[in-house]
Structure formats: C-alpha cells, structure tokens
Automatic annotation (TrEMBL):
<keyword id="KW-0812">Transmembrane</keyword>
<feature type="transmembrane region" description="Helical">
    <location>
        <begin position="58"/>
        <end position="81"/>
    </location>
</feature>
<keyword id="KW-0472">Membrane</keyword>
<keyword id="KW-1133">Transmembrane helix</keyword>
<feature type="transmembrane region" description="Helical">
    <location>
        <begin position="188"/>
        <end position="210"/>
    </location>
</feature>
<protein>
    <submittedName>
        <fullName>Uncharacterized protein</fullName>
    </submittedName>
</protein>
<feature type="transmembrane region" description="Helical">
    <location>
        <begin position="21"/>
        <end position="46"/>
    </location>
</feature>
<feature type="transmembrane region" description="Helical">
    <location>
        <begin position="113"/>
        <end position="136"/>
    </location>
</feature>
<feature type="transmembrane region" description="Helical">
    <location>
        <begin position="156"/>
        <end position="181"/>
    </location>
</feature>
<feature type="transmembrane region" description="Helical">
    <location>
        <begin position="230"/>
        <end position="253"/>
    </location>
</feature>
Length: 261
C-alpha cells in the first residue's frame, strides 16, 4: 500500500500537468506589471497611502490586491473540484482505489497536495514581487524605498498575509468536499454563491464574525503596528477556518467512503 507521502507526491505531479493549475500562476503578472507601471510613472498606477512602500509591504499589498480580484478563488475552486470530483466523474479514481484501499487517506492526500501546491505559488509570488520591486519600482524614490521590511510592522504584515492564505485553504477544503456531492459545474457554482454570501454577511454586525472575508477587510483597515490587535484578528480567522475545514473534511470523507465509484 502506498504511503500518505507517496500519494501526495503523485497528486502533486498530477497538478503539474493541469492547465487550470498553471492559470493560477497568472497572478504573478500583477506585481510584475504594477512594478513596471510605477517605474514608468503610469497614470493607471495610483498610490493612496501617506507613507512610502517598502519591499514586504509591497508584497502583502500586491497579494491583497490579488485577493480583491476574487477570480483566483474561482479558479482554485475549479482546480480543487476537479482534483477529486473530476476523477470520480471520469472513473479514473478506480485506478487509485485498486492500489489504495483507504479512502480517507486518498481524500486527505488530495487536500494536502492542493494546499502544498498553493504554498509553492505563494513562494513564487513572493520571489517575483520582490525581484520586480527592486528592479523597477525602486526607481521611483518619491513613492517607494529600498527598505525590505520594518520591524514594527513585520508581525502585522505576516498575519495579514496568512489571513488571506486561510481563505484559499477554505476554498480548497470546501471545494473538495462539494466535489464528492455534486458534479463539477454545480460544485463551483455553489462555492461561488457561498463566497459571495460571505462577502454580503461581512457587512452585518454580529453575524459578520462568521464570515471568512470579514477578517481580511478588518486587516485592511488596521494599523499594522498594533500587533496585539493583529494577533486577535488572525487567531479568530484561523479558528473559524479550522472549524469550517474540519466540518467539510468530516462530511467529505463520510460521503466519499460511502459513495459508489
């Protein structure tokens, strides 16, 4: 029987050949184009902050900008749904079940490989953003500095970044769960409706704390030097995503174990 690590390696190799997974990498173009736009003094690029940007703040702000586009949530949802649901629909999952007589292990391996693949994309985003920042953006000394980080904002920036990552993890766990209940298109539509509902709910007092997008918007308004407040927001968001993901995993595995493949 294949080990969990071996299954994850197989899943990662599968993702490398998925066109929709490669589409996720188009997010790297955003910081690249933004950096070039800054250096060329493009009228499209608008800075609203009172303080100059520095390396890590530029990275987190670009990642936040990608988050605001939302399209990448839908793409990642499609990738996640096809990872398991697509194999169930085309019956290729049967080749797996002959070698692995442990469906929960298969389920967790698919979720884990998707999360790991997204972390690799995040690392690539960090590298591309900083390279383009120091190649182009720093030419505009009136807007940015050559400084990499500020110690007083480091924790706040890191937790802001992690808060956004948590929403992508939510996207993966929710989408994989939906894929064992519904066909691909239906699952992606349901995810889209739920994500929009979360954005709507985040505007209402009391119930806004149940929305995963609420904490990102709060971070966007926060003075990142307020470390204690940043930690509280992050822990609340992490706990919420952990609860949701646990529920999704239990429901998904239970259905997957009982489903006739």
């Amino acid at each position: 029987m294949l080990s969990f690590r071996n299954i994850c390696n197989i899943e990662l190799r599968k993702l490398m050949y998925r066109k929709d997974m490669w589409i996720m990498l188009t997010m790297l173009a955003i910081p690249a184009l933004y950096s070039i736009g800054i250096s060329l003094n493009s009228s499209v690029i608008v800075f609203t902050g009172e303080e100059k940007e520095y390396g890590m703040s530029f990275f987190v702000n670009m990642f936040s900008f990608v988050n605001a586009v939302y399209i990448y949530y839908f793409i990642l949802s499609l990738v996640s749904v096809r990872s398991l649901g697509g194999e169930i629909e085309n019956k290729s999952i049967l080749l797996y079940t002959q070698r692995i007589n442990n469906r929960p292990k298969m389920y967790f391996a698919k979720v884990s490989s998707l999360i790991l693949a997204f972390f690799v994309i995040c690392l690539a985003f960090l590298i591309v953003t900083l390279v383009m920042y120091y190649l182009f953006a720093v030419q505009r000394e009136d807007l940015v500095t050559r400084q990499l980080l500020k110690s007083e904002e480091l924790t706040g920036l890191f937790l802001f970044f992690l808060c956004i990552v948590l929403v992508y993890i939510f996207t993966i766990t929710f989408s994989v769960m939906l894929s064992v209940y519904f066909k691909t298109n239906t699952a992606v539509i349901i995810f889209s409706i739920v994500l929009i509902a979360f954005m709507f709910v985040s505007e209402f007092p009391t119930i806004q704390y149940l929305s995963i997008t609420y904490y990102i918007s709060r971070f966007g308004e926060l003075d990142l030097t307020q470390t204690s407040e940043a930690v509280k927001l992050f822990l609340a968001n992490a706990a919420l995503v952990a609860v949701y993901s646990t529920i999704f995993s239990v429901l998904g595995i239970r259905k997957f174990e009982r489903r006739d493949l």
